Amino acid sequence: MSDAEMAARLQVEFDAEVANHYTAAAEQEQREAAERSRREAAEQEQREAAERWERQVAQMASDAEMAARLQAGLDAEAEAEASVSRQQGDSEHPDCILTPQPQMPQMPPQQSPGFGSDVLCCYCLDRPATAGVLHMDSVHKILCRDCAVVLKEQRLADCPVCRKKIECFVMRVF
Asked: Which CATH number is 119's domain given?
């Protein structure tokens, strides 16, 4: 074999080895690019899953808040309905049937409620008035404690003095 042939053969082997080296490098680069792409896709999938989770959590919080507001509204509505039923003796609520309101005796003018300690209960006309009824910004000290308890249990709706709606009974007026 001559030197020229040997050189040509070495050149071919060298070129083949260089080509193999570049091919291997290209294949390695392709594998690395595929791995990067796979990692990026996995990271993107994780970000999207986290965003979906955050949206679901926010939606659940919003739903819980809405449910709480709806429940509060329903509770308030039920309380208002029960209050009206108690006042009216609604037949839909048999446990709220009221006893008839007693007719309150009219007090003679000389015994009308005042600031003195000699004011008698406007209901029994027997004992001193020590309790009262509250409505808006007034308290009328017109009942003895016993009559106030009875009238409260009977759910008296209107003040015997001025016929305004009673908000509550005051058991001790000083």
From this structure: 3.30.40.10
Q: Are 142 and 170 in contact, with CB atoms under 8 Å apart?
A: no
Residues sharing a CB contact under 8 Å with residue 171, sequence separation 6 or more, in sequence order: 131, 145, 148, 149
Q: Residue 162: CB partners within 8 Å, gap ≥ 6?
A: 135, 138, 140
* pLDDT, tens digit, 9 for 90 and up, residues 119-156: 888 889 889 988 888 887 788 888 898 998 888 888 88
Each residue's pLDDT tens digit, 83-99: 665 665 545 544 444 44
Residues 87 and 122 reside in one and the same domain: no
Contact (Cβ atoms closer than 8 angstroms) between residue 46 and residue 38: no
Q: What is the mean pLDDT of residues 101-111?
A: 50
Count of domains observed in the chain:
2
The reply to whether 135 and 76 lie within a common domain is no
